Amino acid sequence: MDSRYNPADIEEKWQQTWAELGLDQTPANTKVPKFYALSMFPYPSGSLHMGHVRNYTITDVIARLKRMQGYRVLHPMGWDAFGLPAENAAIDRGVPPAKWTYQNIAQMRQQLKRLGLSIDWDREVATCSPDYYKWTQWIFLQFWQAGLAYQKEAAVNWDPVDQTVVANEQVDSEGRSWRSGAKVERKLLRQWFLKITDYAEELLNDLDKLTGWPERVKLMQANWIGKSTGAYLEFPVVGKDEKVAVYTTRPDTVYGVSYVVLAPEHPLTQVVTTPEQKPAVEAFIQEVSQQSELERTAEDKPKRGIPTGGQVINPFTGEQVPIWIADYVLYEYGTGAVMGVPAHDVRDFKFARVYNLPIEFVIASPDDVADFDLTPTSPTDEITKVINIEYNQAYTEPGILINSGSFTGMSSTDAKEAIIKYAESENFGKLRIQYRLRDWLISRQRYWGAPIPVIHCPNCGIVPVPDEDLPVRLPEEVELTGRGGSPLTQLESWVNVPCPSCGTPARRETDTMDTFIDSSWYFLRYPDAQNTEQVFDPAKTNDWMPVDQYVGGIEHAILHLLYSRFFTKVLRDRGLLNFDEPFARLLTQGMVQGLTYMNPNKSGKDKWVSSHLVNPADPRDPQTGEPLQRLYATMSKSKGNGVAPEDVISKYGVDTARMFILFKAPPEKDLEWDEADVEGQFRFLNRVWRLVTDYATAGVSRKKAELSNLTKPEKELRRAIHTAIQGVTEDLEDEYQFNTAVSELMKLSNALTDAECKNSPIYAEGVQTLVIMLAPFAPHIAEELWQSLGNSGSIHTQTWPSCDPGALVAEEITLVIQINGKKRADIPVPAQADKAELERYARESEVVQRYTEGKEIKKVIVVPGKLVNFVVV
Ligand code: ANZ
Ligand code: ZN
């Protein structure tokens, strides 16, 4: 064997051998405990970046460890392959999206294989393949049958130049389309939705079951679902039969209502607007319709509104208050109307100041009213006056009700309940639970996605495509111009079909599904990825699921994970799955950051200067000569601070890249790419290489160690070995502390280098253990070294070592030293020391030397394992 560590000689060799041996194939279902290790599948952009490498390395170490610990492991990979970039590439380069995508997949698969990941490639899925999207469509129809898929008018971003719908992310902060630069309009179009709101409560409650998820992710999900408890209250319109229904979380402030506000889209605007106000109101509504939801609700933007001229009656006070229309009220939330309480809501306060609406305080801080006798009958004018003057901003805390009729004197908490009860008894309101979560808009007026499998028939309405006609294939040879919307709408031969139900000429749905749909169920397909008859065999999927460890980016903390949880629950309710939550444990890995330089005097993209262009000793802007700031930032093209995985691999090998990534930072933290540390790991692997090859050359000991008869150096080394086993195992057990696990390996390697018993079977145990524990981290070098030690079989099929607690015990006891029966000191001594040895340890101790100097030792009494007494005169 070569005496030098040369990764290029061994890495591809072993990758091939492992593939031939089928080492990464998933074992069949057996009684052996299972472990499902899953990385979030990538979008096939065509090239792998460091973020991918980190993500997949983490999952791979876990998968390899679990195999060695005796689990049967499922560790698959696939492609989230539908989506816009393929369409854009097609528009820019004239390559059909399918071709572009499959080319990228082939390229990235090669790159992934070069990482030596223990992936079962037989289970690869690509969401753009008809074998896969057939089942995406089938699942959509399951939702349809369950009454969970429906069509409704919804406001979308419409690019008037390109005549197409654009996603929110494609509209810039000034409301312009990224493609045409035209000001985007809001347009009402019929869209498809999934009723995720039906599952809001369960999606929220079941977060408690996810004990293996980061708290932060659960909190983000809970906030996204946004449960709030409040009241639905009706305010009758003066002179009409209609009522304005509002949703409020502060019914305790109802005596402070000075106006009600309708969303511009609210149908009642037509009813309540007076003829005088009509032209102004219509102009206002038209203007607001141009704005995105983000613009309308941005906190730093002044809220704008207009009075309708209409009035409502506050059912609690009998007073009339004006009806306004304002941009900040969203039609889709609550009832699309709110009661304005400027005294107790910051937004309403600002609004009232701008439009000169009355501000009346009805809640006071308990301290401020402590001296007042607040009963429903006591006059509160005095205190109202005082407080109205003193509070010159909204008082938003709960407190004590003032000027609130029979509720005066109650706490906000009690009053909320009492006011809702009263409204219920009088029939103008009730308790209402409201979620911020809205139904999921899944239709895209886009080509490169799974077609929604329905047919619109003039007689039957919406008719689902029969299961046997699935998949509804996406025609692959299309021309994409980027204008005029999806090319599907123009493919008459594809669009025109007979109705499956009555045979009348009908039209296919031309919308495709949001790509988040594709990724909401892929993890259910891996356990049975090649099934052509079923979406999956429930027995297989139920056996493997839930995913035991899911690893991916924090950017998916909300939508992808929420949608996957939703799909799981719906398919469970359809009888296909027997569990509630798809991902038992979640690890969100941090970003990979690269060194970059920033010119603080410039803005936007121009301020970044790639580290290739500056002198690190005196970093200056090459254009202006200004001094630059040095910092780490997430690797990106615009900052020019990316490090290409292939460069690192060709220089150091993939094992070093893996070791560096795992060692440099705990997995959930950001990681600063640092070449010096990469080299440090390369040197470590070189040391291990030398240590093992030196030993292998010197002759591997096959003797079994006599544990009862070890020398001191052997015991010490054995303790180091088992401390390392314990440390690495614990570091990998719960929190996946790869960085400290690697440190343990380094310590063990040092202990072996320093060991004084290189001929002992204990040393042999140490070398084998080091190599075995290195295997999940640096699989190629570990395999090569394993073979060099003369072992048979792959290292990756070995059993993970277990720690012998006996070896850890500090082999020492405390010996008491007495002089003439009086205790003078304690000293540590080896536990096994016999009488003579104990006496020798005692005599050599500093105390005894001191007390016996110039004196005669008459007698030495040794109590084994306890004490030594010197009788001196
Ligand atoms: C009166 C009030 C008084 C309110 C007060 C707050 C404080 P969450 O917790 O998010 O559910 N609201 C209701 N529907 C709205 C809509 N469609 N668009 C904009 N705002 C809306 O928020 C509920 C509160 O948000 C409601 O309680 C309502 O204002 C406002 F001192 O009602 B509140
Ligand atoms: Zn029909």
From TrEMBL:
Question: Mainly resides where?
Answer: cytoplasm
Positions contributing to ATP binding: K637
Q: Cite the Methionyl/Valyl/Leucyl/Isoleucyl-tRNA synthetase anticodon-binding domain residue spans from the record.
A: 715-834
This protein's GO cellular component annotations are: cytosol
Enumerate the SUPFAM superfamilies for this protein.
Anticodon-binding domain of a subclass of class I aminoacyl-tRNA synthetases, Nucleotidylyl transferase, ValRS/IleRS/LeuRS editing domain
Q: Where are the transmembrane segments?
A: none
Question: Does Manganese appear among the keywords?
Answer: no
- Region listing for Disordered, in residue ranges: 292-311
Motif 'HIGH' region — list its residue ranges: 42-52
EC annotation? 6.1.1.4
Which GO MF term does the entry hold, naming one? Answer: leucine-tRNA ligase activity
Listed under GO biological process in this entry are: leucyl-tRNA aminoacylation
What PANTHER family does the annotation carry? Answer: LEUCINE--TRNA LIGASE, MITOCHONDRIAL, LEUCYL-TRNA SYNTHETASE
Q: Write out the similarity annotation.
A: Belongs to the class-I aminoacyl-tRNA synthetase family.
NCBIfam families reported for this sequence: leuS_bact
Q: What is this protein called?
A: Leucine--tRNA ligase
The uppermost taxa in this organism's lineage are: Bacteria, Bacillati, Cyanobacteriota, Cyanophyceae, Nostocales
